[in-house]
Design a protein that fits this description.
The complex is a heterodimer of chains A (150) and B (124). Chain A has 150 residues and is of the alpha/beta class. Chain A has one domain. Chain A has seven helices and four strands, in the order E-H-E-H-H-H-E-H-E-H-H. The radius of gyration of chain A is 15 Å and the shape is globular. Chain B has 124 residues and is an alpha/beta fold. In chain B, helix 1 crosses helix 6. Chain B is globular and about 35 Å long. Classes of the chains: A alpha/beta (150), B alpha/beta (124).
């Protein structure tokens, strides 16, 4: 998967994931867990991440993240912090996932009493989101097979 | 009771980021005067949260020396009361936090210790 037309190990063979991690809401916890599940289990060789706040706290290299990798943003709510922040500070995102809408489209609602720290209760939702992220990674890599300027 | 803002880094790649997040949740569960806000909302420039950090005391909790939470608050001119760095508690406690999705027992213990310390600082 993800073999570049140049035959080398260029960045375009990996997809960047920028997750909101929203501490205020359960969906933020889901975003963070789902992203980790993709990085650790589902697509460990095809994905990389960065701490989103580094776009302000870090250096030029950090801010070039979305220029160096085709990037998917993962947001917990419709404020789209990860997507908007990435596009403002780093580069255009290749795709984005908003968890509330994604779960709603699958008929899943997070019960109101579930808190952002109830990690075990949120795992099931995170697995659903992780699967969607993995599918999006596959799409991005397929589209990126011929890499411009590589 | 004056409300204070707590902002953890939630670092994506380190256990100490998870510890920082857990510290914030410990404080939120144990104190009614603590409000946790999303660090990412500052990075994205969400106005309502920027306004909050300018008007209330802010405690940041960072998982590594890159100090993302502290720097994001400073970037927007927030009222930084104290910047806490979780890594500084490792030697002090001898604990070895592990895990990112779920912290091990040491990680949870460390989060509780740091939360208790911040709680004292909040009370002055």
């Amino acid at each position: 998967m993800g073999t570049c037309s140049c035959g080398g190990d260029c960045n375009k063979n990996k997809v960047g994931l920028v997750s909101c991690s929203g501490e205020e809401i359960p969906e933020g916890t889901i975003a963070r867990i789902a992203t980790r599940l993709v990085l650790e289990k589902l697509r460990p060789n095809e994905s990389v991440t960065i701490c989103f706040p580094l776009f302000i706290a870090g250096g030029e290299e950090d801010r070039n993240f979305a220029k160096n990798y085709p990037t998917i943003s993962i947001d917990g709510c419709d404020k789209y912090c990860a997507k908007k922040g990435t596009e403002k500070l780093s580069g255009k995102v290749y795709g984005s996932i908003e968890i509330r809408s994604l779960l709603a489209s699958k008929g899943l609602d997070i019960p109101k009493e579930v808190k952002p720290w109830d990690t075990p209760k949120l795992m099931e939702y995170a697995e659903v989101v992780a699967q969607s992220i993995a599918e999006k990674i596959d799409e991005v890599l397929k589209e990126n097979k011929v890499v411009e300027g590589c | 009771m004056e409300e204070v803002i707590v902002i953890p880094c939630s670092g994506m790649g380190k256990s100490l980021g998870s510890v920082a997040r857990e510290v914030a949740y410990n404080l939120q569960k144990s104190r009614k005067d603590v409000k946790v806000i999303c660090l990412g909302s500052l990075t994205a420039g969400v106005e309502e949260n920027i306004k909050e950090i300018k008007g209330k005391k802010v405690f940041t909790i960072d998982g590594c020396k890159l100090l993302c939470a502290q720097k994001n608050v400073e970037h927007y001119g927030g009222k930084l009361a104290e910047s806490i760095l979780t890594v500084e508690y490792l030697k002090k406690t001898g604990l070895s936090p592990k895990g990112i999705i779920e912290l091990n027992e040491d990680g949870n213990k460390l989060a509780k210790i740091i939360a208790d310390e911040i709680s004292k600082k909040i009370e002055g």
